[in-house]
Amino acid sequence: RQWSDSLYDDLEEILYEADLGAQAVESILDQLRQRVRESRPERAEDVLDLLRQVMVSMLESMPNPYELTGTPAIWLMVGVNGTGKTTTAGKLAERMKRRGHSVILGAADTFRAAAAEQLMEWGRRAGVDVVHQVEGADPAAVAFDTVRAASARKLDLAVIDTAGRLHNKAHLMQELGKIARVVGRECPGAPHQVWLVIDATTGQNGLEQARVFQEAVNVTGIVLTKLDGTAKGGVAFAIHQALNIPIGFVGVGEKLDDLMTFDPEGYVRAILGMEEPH
Amino acid sequence: MFDALTEKLQQTFKRMRNKGRLTEADVKEALREVRLALLEADVNFKVVREFLGRVEARAVGQDVLESLTPDQAVIRIVRDELIQLMGSHVERVHMASNPPTVIYMVGLQGAGKTTASAKLARMLRHQGRQPLLVAADIYRPAAIDQLKVLADKIQVPVVTEPSKTPVELAELGKAASRRMAKDVIIIDTAGRLHVDDDLMGELEAMNARIPANEMLLVVDAMTGQDAVRVAEAFKERLPLTGVVMTKLDGDARGGAALSIREVTQLPIKLVGSGEKLEDLEPFNPDRMASRILGM
Ligand SMILES: Nc1nc2c(ncn2[C@@H]2O[C@H](COP(=O)(O)OP(=O)(O)OP(=O)(O)O)[C@@H](O)[C@H]2O)c(=O)[nH]1
Ligand SMILES: Nc1nc2c(ncn2[C@@H]2O[C@H](COP(=O)(O)OP(=O)(O)OP(=O)(O)O)[C@@H](O)[C@H]2O)c(=O)[nH]1
Ligand SMILES: [K+]
Ligand SMILES: [Mg+2]
Ligand SMILES: [Mg+2]
């Protein structure tokens, strides 16, 4: 198809419908217009490909999301309710174990009904021990126990699950800050990774989530879950743009194995509805 | 509270104060700001386009009441349209004339079905009903434990049995309701993707065996543009009767409510406003309209 500038509207629609939000859409289209003026492509497909290039160039992937710093390395799973923290903790534990590391899980969600049982089932599946206490226990104490256990057993990695919490609830964000501090006191430099788990169906609220979690605990990476549905997870792009938080992993299902490292090219192609190159 | 949108509109209209009548150019300019506000609130892109088309048609040429400034006039039209679209009265969960009433809670993973099931059981009990919960999520780790813990808190029985299929569990629920003289069966189903043909088929099979009086789609208020696709797909295969919107205690603007109404016409019946079991409220279209507009 012949390119004409009226097709910018279609591109805008594609980007908005992938949840990129006004700011990201504007800055992407600004760059695209610049590129189109420079290279004057004739066909719509060429412009789409330019758009792909622009978007990929704006994303930076984590060099190695599997990297372990700290002995033991302490990872914290954080995010709003129901995004996939517990599931991802289980997937990560299994993945790291398969990569030859010794791993332990910590059930620091002591609030939600049967949250510990859920993580313990993931622990069984992954073949990884789970530190837990009774419902209602102090989550910071569970996190502390987990770090202790990881150190005492000389393990490589502890993955600590936390309760889902809405970022606009100050007391819950303070509680999370406390968990991170307690962990840091016990093991200098910890938590070494704080994974903010974002559900791909999330709209523009994801930006505010990232902002506030970033402030409360130093978020080091995003896990974008539920990309196996029809949602494109464009808000992760917007978050990356606004806050410069890299995306480390994506969740693509409910099974142990449904976790992939983030691939900017594949992510952008999915947003634009483009085929993977052969 | 004066919000960003109101302020922007005031700026837009400053130059044209007291002109008395909304011209096409005025309205177009104002609606640009409204458009951004709606997109920011996660209203679906196409829904925004259609919605603004209607507002524009209504607004252009309209007299501005003396008591209103043009920005107030536009906001009022937008709000009126929003409220009208969202349903102007409070919707109820209907009870079958011939008990037991069968209520299914369905939706995507993590939307809040299990929590909403328990909340609804609690609400109905307070209204003098005798609910029974059915734990039909046999997939998610500890989903049954989760429902049991919640049900314990409100002292509502849970039907569950190892190695039964969800269809069998629905049947067991029905049988148990007779035995235990319960008049409402609330079935908590597993989270599933609308594109998962097998799992969507499972819900169809459950409903074929134990037909729903109410089938409520549970939707997270934080949902973005995908809400439309999800709601349409669920509605296509299942006799949905309404929507429960959860996590409204957050600060998401909840534009999904508008999108879902527009494309499915389904009423929003209840909203979740917290993690505790008493945090379930009737849906208020008026408040939702203000929220979506960020006012
Ligand atoms: N389709 C799909 N479902 C997922 C994915 N990740 C998690 N889920 C499902 O999402 C639901 C919520 O996952 P959890 O791991 O319990 O989420 P959470 O963030 O720990 O939830 P809370 O602790 O309640 O805040 C479960 O039904 C999971 O099976 C994914 O990548 N794809
Ligand atoms: N803040 C808040 N959290 C909620 C609300 N409703 C549910 N939640 C939380 O959201 C998370 C997911 O809720 P669930 O009831 O487990 O969701 P679900 O749809 O049953 O999840 P799956 O069975 O895994 O598909 C939990 O952490 C709940 O506590 C609400 O209205 N407000
Ligand atoms: K969710
Ligand atoms: Mg969890
Ligand atoms: Mg559930």
In short:
The complex is a heterodimer of chains A (278) and B (295). Chain A is an alpha/beta fold.
Number of strands of chain A: 8
**Order of strands across the main sheet of chain B:** 3-2-4-1-5-6-7-8
Succession of helices and strands of chain B: HHHHEHEHEHEHEHEHEEH
CA(first)-CA(last) distance of chain A: 22 Å
What would the average pLDDT of chain B be, to the nearest integer? 92
Uncertain stretches of chain A = none
Instruction: Give the strand content of chain A.
Output: 5-15%
Bound ligands: guanosine-5'-triphosphate, potassium ion, magnesium ion
Shape of chain A: elongated
**Which secondary-structure class do the elements of chain B indicate?**
alpha/beta
Number of H- or I-type helical stretches of chain B: 11
* N→C terminal distance of chain B: 7 Å
* Biggest sheet overview of chain A: 8 strands, mixed
Structural class of chain A: alpha/beta
| Arithmetic mean pLDDT of chain A | 97
Adjacency order of strands in the biggest sheet of chain A: 3-2-4-1-5-6-7-8
Q: What is this structure's SSE topology?
A:
The complex is a heterodimer of chains A (278) and B (295).
Chain A: H1 8-17, H2 21-39, H3 44-58, E1 73-78, H4 85-98, E2 103-108, H5 115-126, E3 129-131, H6 139-152, E4 157-162, H7 170-186, E5 193-199, H8 205-216, E6 221-225, H9 234-243, E7 247-251, E8 259-261, H10 264-272
Parallel strand pairs in A: 1-4, 1-5, 2-3, 2-4, 5-6, 6-7
Antiparallel strand pairs in A: 7-8
Helix pairs in contact in A: 1-2, 2-3, 3-10, 4-5, 6-7, 8-9
Chain B: H1 4-14, H2 24-40, H3 45-59, H4 70-86, E1 101-106, H5 113-126, E2 131-136, H6 143-154, E3 158-159, H7 166-179, E4 184-189, H8 197-209, E5 214-220, H9 227-237, E6 242-246, H10 255-264, E7 268-272, E8 280-282, H11 285-293
Parallel strand pairs in B: 1-4, 1-5, 2-3, 2-4, 5-6, 6-7
Antiparallel strand pairs in B: 7-8
Helix pairs in contact in B: 1-2, 1-4, 2-3, 2-4, 3-4, 4-11, 5-6, 7-8, 9-10
The complex binds guanosine-5'-triphosphate (2 copies), potassium ion and magnesium ion (2 copies).
